[in-house]
Amino acid sequence: MGIRKKTTKTPPVLSHEFVIQNHADIVSCVAMVFLLGLMFEVTSKFAVLFITVQYNVTISTSGPEETPVNHFHHGIKDLATTFFYMLVAIIMHAIIQEYVLDKINRKKHFSKTKHSKFNESGQLSAFYLFSSGWGASILMSENLLSNPVSLWEGYPHTLMPFQMKFYFICQLGYWLHEDIPRQLVYIFLYLVHIAGAYILNLNRLALVLLVLHYVVELLFHMSRLVYFSNETRQSGFTLWAVLFVLCRLLTLSLSVLTVGFGLATSENQGFDLSAGNFNVIFVRITVLAAICLTQAFMMWKFINFQLRRWREHGLTQNLKKKQVPAKTNGVNGVNSNGADSPRAKKEKSS
After folding, report:
1. Fewer CB near the last or first residue (10 Å), C or N of the chain?
2. Which residues does the UniProt record annotate as the domain TLC (predicted)?
3. Nearest to 91 by CA among 13, 16, 174
4. Contact (CB, 8 A) for 48 and 80
């Protein structure tokens, strides 16, 4: 009877398995189609719609020398740009996974559960590090930290600098590409809050809150990566727990200050869709309710997470106590359970 050779079957083209195995390559080809479209005059107008940021407005600054400054507002064409940068996010995700995370996984030999969580934390750590650094640079360049009144002063903030608008486009593109099953609720909340702030022209407040949140989440996922490499190193989780609670309080404080007091006392009240003004009491209450409910949900998940960690730690300590071997009393030759030790038995027999 002949030995049957092992053959690796290639899944049928365009089958579900084929798409899963080659999704990064497929997406790269789609992105290249848009880039190649820039080379031809017939397709360049269509390709520009996806690749470049839309709705450019040139404003001349007042002063001795008038210099033109480019600003941008949002519109329906941003959906096309968001789609393209969602493709870019998929490609970057595959690059980080193949050239960084997979190599570490092969060296560490993680279990199936740890392997999944390590990949998740590795991907999100890279994203949070990049996004928090980029967002902080925008905050500093726009002087939003040194002048908190600018969070609501001059609302509606329909015009944005290029960096700020591109930042929100990339944020939406990234969270649209995520497909972590156990994090679908969080992904939905990210999309609702970012898109809502972007449409309602609350981009300045959203940028501050995103940077705060991303810094805390970065600490959590970095602590989890360190924990996977050495389970005795858990100090990062303690620092994250403190900062997590402080971030929730600061988020609520800034939201109430900006929406509840700043916009409520603003002179520009009313609803004007063409001007991008949504400063009416119904919208303000809806925004505050959404933020408060989200913070309450996150605190509830945080408390459950901490209680589960404490229970697991208590069970581990109890198991360690039960596994302590019975000690031998060398003075009277009797074990801790009252029986003669082997040495005492030998002396009695002799």
Report:
1. N
2. 116-313
3. 174
4. no
* CA pair distance 151, 142, nearest whole angstrom: 11
Residues in the chain: 350
Token pair listed for 85: 């940068």
Q: Which amino acid is at 291?
A: I
What the block records as the tokens of 110 is: 């993680």
Q: Which two tokens stand for residue 80?
A: 């096309």
Helix (H) or strand (E) holding 194: helix 184-199
Give kind and range of the element (H or E) at residue 328: strand 328-329
Q: 48 by DSSP, 3-state: which?
A: helix
Contact 97, 89 (CB under 8 A): no
pLDDT of residue 324: 62
Task: Name the residue with tokens 């996806």.
Answer: 50
Nearest to 134 by CA among 245, 218, 50, 221: 218
- pLDDT number for residue 319: 76
What are the helix and strand counts (H, E) for the chain? Answer: 12, 6
Instruction: Show the tokens assigned to 245.
Output: 């609670």
Bridge-based pairing of strands 277-279 and 328-329 is: unpaired
